[in-house]
Specification:
Layout lengths: L1 H7 L6 E4 L9 H7 L4 E4 L10 H7 L2 E4 L1 H6 L12 H6 L4 E3 L4 H4 L5 H10 L4 H13 L5 H27 L1
Parallel strand pairs: 1-2, 2-3, 3-4
Helix pairs in contact: 8-9
């Protein structure tokens, strides 16, 4: 891979789909971290391996949380309330929302997964904002694209908050 990157002057970051399990015997998260994955899809059983938390934070590896998929696959026993995502966020791990199998479940985009996250994980506005902004920070966009997208998002977020405050005042 390194030869290919050098030959073609590209960067091919790893985005591994690991930790999609409730088993402490599924240790593929260690592989993802050692291979410098930029994102880890699911990371559901990461709570079994707290030794990885500081490494993931240091390497800025995003944990992709797939709320609807995890629920359908019953990793959280059908209850959003017992999903480990809020403990990941409280521990300072970078978390993003991902759809995983939206096409299989009959939807596109992230709206359904964000709604399920907000309601099911009982997120407050600060947590929602962090997840939304992490979507850009931990994306595969170039540095310039991230800066521009974050700028646009910050303006839209501020406009939305002001609109909500105005509506509340009325």
């Amino acid at each position: 891979m390194k030869d290919y990157e050098a030959t073609h002057n590209v960067s091919l970051p790893f985005f591994f789909h690991d930790g999609e399990s409730t088993s402490r015997n599924n240790t593929n998260l260690f592989d993802a971290v050692m291979l410098d994955s930029r994102r880890i899809g699911h990371g559901f059983n990461l709570y079994y391996f707290p030794v990885l938390f500081p490494i993931i934070k240091e390497k800025k590896i995003a944990i992709e949380v797939n709320p609807i998929s995890n629920n359908v696959l019953r990793y959280n026993s059908g209850s959003f309330a017992i999903h480990p995502v809020t403990s990941y966020m409280a521990s300072g791990l970078p978390v993003v929302i991902s759809s995983d199998d939206g096409g299989v479940f009959g939807y596109t985009g992230l709206s359904n997964d964000f709604f399920a996250s907000i309601v099911g994980f009982q997120l407050d506005l600060k947590q929602v904002k962090k997840l939304v902004f992490n979507s850009i920070e931990y994306s595969s966009l170039t540095k310039g694209e991230k800066e521009r997208s974050a700028e646009i998002l910050a303006k839209r977020w501020e406009d939305w908050v002001m609109k909500m405050l105005a509506a509340e005042a009325n």
